[in-house]
Design a protein that fits this description.
Distance between the termini of chain A: 50 Å
CATH topology of the largest domain in chain A: Rossmann fold
Protein name (chains A, B): Serine racemase
Strand content of chain A: 5-15%
Order of helices and strands of chain A: HHEHEHHEHEHEHEHEHEHHEHHHEH
Shape of chain A: globular
InterPro entries (chains A, B): Ser/Thr_deHydtase_PyrdxlP-BS (IPR000634), TrpB-like_PALP (IPR001926), TrpB-like_PALP_sf (IPR036052)
Largest interface: A-B, 23 and 23 residues
Radius of gyration of chain A: 18 Å
GO molecular function, one term (chains A, B): L-serine ammonia-lyase activity
EC number (chains A, B): 4.3.1.18, 5.1.1.18
CATH class of the largest domain in chain A: Alpha Beta
Helix content of chain A: 40-55%
Keywords (chains A, B): Lyase, Magnesium, Pyridoxal phosphate, S-nitrosylation
Largest sheet of chain A: 6 strands, mixed
Number of domains of chain A: 2
CATH architecture of the largest domain in chain A: 3-Layer(aba) Sandwich
Oligomer: homodimer
Amino acid sequence: MASDAEQKETYAATLKSIQEARERISGFAHVTPVFSSCCVNQIARANLYFKCELLQKSGAFKFRGACNAVLSLPKDIASRGVITHSSGNHAAALALAAKIQGIPAFVIMPKNAPKCKVENVKRYGGKIYFSEPTLESREEIAQDVQKQTGATLIHPYNDTRVISGQGTIALELLEQIPELDALIVPISGGGLISGITLAAKSVNSSIRIFAAEPKGADDAAQSKAVGKLLTNSHTDTIADGLRASLGSLTWPVVRDMVDSVVTVTDDEIVKSMRICYDILKIVVEPSGAAALAAALSAEFQSKLQEESLNHIGIVLSGGNVDLGVIGDYFN
Amino acid sequence: MASDAEQKETYAATLKSIQEARERISGFAHVTPVFSSCCVNQIARANLYFKCELLQKSGAFKFRGACNAVLSLPKDIASRGVITHSSGNHAAALALAAKIQGIPAFVIMPKNAPKCKVENVKRYGGKIYFSEPTLESREEIAQDVQKQTGATLIHPYNDTRVISGQGTIALELLEQIPELDALIVPISGGGLISGITLAAKSVNSSIRIFAAEPKGADDAAQSKAVGKLLTNSHTDTIADGLRASLGSLTWPVVRDMVDSVVTVTDDEIVKSMRICYDILKIVVEPSGAAALAAALSAEFQSKLQEESLNHIGIVLSGGNVDLGVIGDYFN
């Protein structure tokens, strides 16, 4: 086990870099509200506090990291633009951050990305290149475009600026609800949970952090189980935002500081989406509902009692979903 | 034209009764948030401020009036319970208000009420009696149950306590966004718009009030046109909460103080629901989206310019919608 000082150098972000990100994106990103509901608390047998990142600009938390990354670039480098490959929410967020700075954004998206996520990128003026739905195809096209344009690659999660930006959620949430004793955060590439964990444990070292992961893309659960970074060989989940695998910068945080990974089925995700729509009256995408699904799972419900957890922060990460698809889920 | 003093006695509520209602329901009802969006403002060519009554307890503004009515009852009368006939949102709101006070609520609902609205009444412990989908059938059954139980009838809108409760929305909204120069409010039986109009024009006499009404249930537009209270002989709209006709207490306010009624088609309502889901990320029912539909209509867009209106309050009245139906609307 490394000492505290060594650990801090090891990880991709620090409380300081996250505080600086907060300062940087202030006035650009929303301080999102926290919702709660007696009805949902009854179902969950705990007090849940929903951090509504679906109400963030661009409809997802991704704007925080993208905005911090864009605003961190020196002017001459920024002017050549930014580029990314993403299933969608990071792409739209980066396009919006670039638009605000008046620089171009080049986006490589898989052909099968949800229509609304493609529309979001277009809405913010991003230039789209479609790839095959594999990481290899995306990265190859990204490299080509980068060579042509000189744009800076902003990775969706394996980037310290992005991780620091996402961590600002925890600083806000722990000010909004200081009594939280646990957080549940969806996990995919790990940028969101890394930033949040580094920030939250710096502010409150005893806070417990749980990752919510689809069973059909459970690289984090598998990696934690064997103590070694594994990647998804294939994925099968409706949570299109949670299909990525952990990266070299995010895995160490998940390995050392995330307390546990709770896996959830697509059925559990749909059930949680229904609660968000029916009771909270907010639009969440499947990935966005994963943390609530984890909170309601038998696995977490037994942890609640064992560990006497009462006040749980739930990160509802985004709300970009094709409306036509919603009816199919709920019928 | 009656003098100011005479007028104040004529109308169903006063600034004082609305302020008292606010005091009474404080701590029971939510002070709902106001949302805004640059993207929506671009579409609407004005600054829109969305008063999110879908986030009110029971999922609609109706809780304000129901709660004020229940809390206004003397204890011995309250103990026998309350009764109403309603298309749903008032019913659920009354059931919740009664539950909070520990008294029974008896609810007569039309057989064809949306499933989620029936579920909402059940969730709050209301006792349901189903009627034919006509006002006559509802009122007949209500009278029978009232005779048996001694419960107090709380009309969905033709009730001064209810109207005063709904008016609290305007007091909140004009404090939240003092620069508003117009409000758009959905109209059905008129309880919501009467309360809001009486409150808003007391606080700011120059504020303009527009009613949003479905073309398929346009008794208010027809009544305003001829200066005489007319009722809908039949209705044809997806906005199930806007099918009622104005009442004796609400018509005078609409006649004298509502500036104009803007009618909207079901297609316009669906388009506005889509904007709420896609951009604002909130769940609205068809009735709840009517005011935004009015704001985007050609009729209102020309008024915007003629009258130099810049800051428009939009009352999103409720969010109780069957999720299975949403997909049908949006496909």
